[in-house]
Specification:
The structure holds two protein chains of two kinds.
Chain A lengths: L1 E2 L10 E4 L4 E4 L5 E2 L1 H12 L18 E5 L6 E5 L2 E5 L6 E4 L11 E2 L6 H14 L10 H5 L2 E30 L2 E25 L6 H7 L8 E2 L9 E3 L9 H17 L7 E13 L3 E14 L2 E8 L5 E3 L5 H25 L1
Parallel strand pairs in A: 9-15, 10-13
Antiparallel strand pairs in A: 1-8, 2-3, 3-4, 5-6, 7-8, 7-13, 9-12, 10-11, 10-14, 10-15, 15-16, 16-17
Chain B lengths: L1 H24 L12 E3 L6 H18 L2 E6 L8 H11 L10 E7 L4 E7 L2 H4 L2 H16 L3 H23 L4 H5 L5 H9 L8 H22 L8 H4 E24 L16 E3 L5 E6 L1
Parallel strand pairs in B: 1-2, 2-3
Antiparallel strand pairs in B: 3-4, 4-7, 6-7
Helix pairs in contact in B: 2-6, 5-6
């Protein structure tokens, strides 16, 4: 079933307001806390539960599901991972509640801290900063398409131990008479290090690029809030497409790098260190299912797809810019001319 | 009309004066073959030998456009052989041209000190290495007690070397005879010294283009986002444990190599001998043996 959070005062849809961290009615300005609205909603929902129907296209990979917009009655088509969306006819924020309940219920989320206007502003200033970025690569209509989305993440907890053996060298130079002596001291260095890594995030959405999501880290966990459905109102949200086990290979590669980094950082004072042997033991403790706030903007420039992403909590930007070869050439030419003159002048004085 | 005519004459006169000035200022021979060439203060030569050497000196001078002097002494005073030779040469005002071009052999067998002093264009003709070669050849005669033979060998070598040099590479010294240099240093700066690398525009452009290309490349890279989270971000610092650590010394290996010493001249490069400034302020080259 699909539902919306309705303002108890006027009946318009209520959305989560990241500034006040409360639910706000865009129509009459009523504000309620997430908890207040959630209990209010549980009560009213009981009376109007109505399943419009689910259609599963079994012969295709993706299954699309139809819902009825609780506000205007139009039929909404969503893919199987959609949790929160907007009615494509009336724009009412809509929640597919069954996808965040029971075993699909996230334990926590970090609410959006950055408003849509701020996200737009950040995009615009980022776009201006690129030295080689073409000036015409976005339009104001592009910027309006920036969307806030709760991306499903697993937070993993690992206990890891590593045992590394390395060959290390220390080199001294000594001058005696007409000869220079190079002494190389060879060492065998071993370390056995154990560490706990807590809440390593990994995005579990099927259609989010892993490397981009990894770069959006770190999220600040002090803002982790117990999950409640009203937070999603006014944003897009997805449920996880991969289970915690599905992604263990990916996350364990990271944990192995982490524990190696922790062990390697205890080896100092050598001129060269070569790891000859390395063994790891990893133990996974429970993984938590959480939703993380991300601003997304997909756009095309000269036939190529670009993605702008912004951490909805910390404001960290991860994005690739279009490059203008003309601008690049201009910089190269300008620098060459200026440097040539500078070098020539230096040449006079030395 | 008259005034224009007057002006014309004036201009003509000035042009004539100017051209005379150029002639006056050009390369000027001051050599006098009637003056003494052999200064045998130590008395190593017989009178006949002196006469013969005097004549030979003049021959070589005419062939080489260098004043050629032979000087023997057993008393350098308190000076070292280089200073003594420079001063002796300058005091006597030797030289084939206005800049004092010439070469002088100084022999002091008592102190076993020999020196070949060069000045003017002779510095260009005789590089340090050739002076040592000459020294070795002359020494063969001196050690055998044949002082006149050593002097003759010196004169032979000077004539031979300058003749060969002029045949092979006259362009290297040509500007000297076409200019009006009063000291070798000016000639050196203009025609001998290798131009520093950075005075060539194309080299500056190459370096600049290289730096620019790298900078533009790295500025492009710098615009890509990178990972901000690392092991420390998620590590529980309280539970971090080092169970075992050891750094065991295995062995020491040693290699050695000889340090190459730079034994070049007094910093002047680009052909010709190295040179220095004597107490009178003029440039001298040369070397002892």
């Amino acid at each position: 079933m699909a539902s919306s959070y309705v303002c108890p005062g006027c009946g318009a849809a209520m959305e989560f307001d990241s500034e006040s961290q409360k639910m706000k009615c865009s129509h009459c300005g009523t504000t309620l806390t997430v908890e207040e609205l959630d209990t209010l909603n549980e009560y009213s929902k009981k009376q109007e539960d109505e399943v419009v129907g689910e259609f599963n296209y079994d012969d295709e990979k993706e299954s699309f599901v139809k819902y009825k917009c609780p506000s205007c009655g139009a039929e909404l088509l969503t893919d199987e991972n959609t949790v929160a969306t907007f009615c494509s006819f009336c724009g009412t924020p809509t929640l597919v509640e069954s996808r965040v309940e029971d075993e699909l219920k996230p334990s926590h989320l970090i609410p959006f801290k950055i408003k849509k206007d701020e996200a737009k502003k950040k995009f615009l200033s980022w776009a201006k900063k690129g030295l080689f970025t073409p000036s015409d690569f976005y339009s104001s209509s592009t910027v309006d398409k920036i969307t806030g989305m709760y991306v499903p993440f697993w937070l993993y907890n690992y206990n890891a131990e590593t045992n590394i053996s390395c060959k290390a060298e220390r080199v001294h130079h000594e001058v005696r008479g007409d000869y220079e002596y190079v002494h190389t001291d060879h060492y065998m260095v071993t370390r056995d290090v154990e560490a706990d890594f807590n809440r390593i995030p990994a995005d579990a959405a099927e259609n989010m690029p892993d490397d981009v999501m990894d770069k959006l880290e770190p999220f600040e966990y002090r803002d982790l809030t117990e999950f409640q459905k009203p937070y999603l109102s006014g944003y897009y949200a997805e449920k996880y497409g991969y289970s915690a086990d599905d992604m263990s290979e990916r996350i364990e590669k990271r944990v192995k790098d982490f524990i190696y980094e922790a062990a390697r950082s205890t080896i100092h004072g050598y001129d060269s260190v070569t790891v000859v042997n390395r063994s790891n033991r990893l133990k996974r403790n429970k993984a938590e299912y959480v939703l993380m706030p991300v601003w997304l903007l997909n756009y095309r420039y000269k036939g190529k797809e670009y993605m702008f992403t912004l951490n909805g909590q910390t404001g960290r930007i991860v994005a690739d810019r279009p490059f203008s070869n003309a601008k690049r050439l201009g910089w190269f030419a300008g620098m060459t001319v200026v440097l040539t003159i500078i070098i020539r002048i230096i040449g006079i004085f030395i | 009309m008259k005034s224009i005519h007057k002006l014309k004459t004036k201009i003509l006169l000035m042009a004539l004066l100017a051209s005379m000035y150029v002639v006056f200022c050009g390369y000027k021979v001051v050599y006098d073959d009637t003056e003494q060439k052999v200064y045998d203060d130590a008395g190593y030569f017989t009178d006949e030998e002196v006469e013969e050497l005097e004549q030979y000196c003049n021959e070589v001078s005419n062939a080489t456009k260098l004043e050629v002097i032979i000087h023997t002494t057993e008393d350098f005073g308190s000076k070292d052989r280089e200073t003594y030779s420079d001063d002796y040469y300058d005091e006597h005002d030797f030289g084939y041209d206005q800049a004092g071009s010439g070469i002088m052999l100084v022999i002091n067998q008592k102190d076993e000190q020999r020196y070949i002093d060069t000045k003017g264009i002779a510095i260009r003709y005789f590089d340090d290495e050739y002076i040592q070669t000459m020294g070795r050849n002359i020494l063969n005669y001196l050690d055998a007690g044949d002082y006149a033979g050593g002097a003759r060998e010196f004169l032979n070598l000077v004539e031979e070397h300058v003749t060969e040099f002029n045949e092979d590479d006259y362009d290297a010294v040509k500007p000297w005879f076409e200019g009006d240099y009063s000291d070798y240093r000016d000639f050196y700066d203009e025609h001998v010294k290798e131009a520093p690398l950075l005075s060539h525009w194309y080299i500056c452009v190459l370096i600049a283009a290289g730096i620019s290309a790298l900078t533009v490349f790295f500025m492009g890279l710098g615009q890509k986002s990178s990972m901000a989270a690392n092991a420390n971000t998620y590590m529980d610092k309280d539970k971090y444990k080092i169970h075992q650590q050891s750094d065991i010394f295995i062995r020491r290996t040693t290699t050695r190599h000889k340090i190459e010493k730079d034994d070049g001249g007094s910093g002047s490069s680009g052909g010709g001998g190295s040179f220095h400034t004597s107490s009178s302020g003029s440039s001298h080259g040369g070397g002892g043996f």
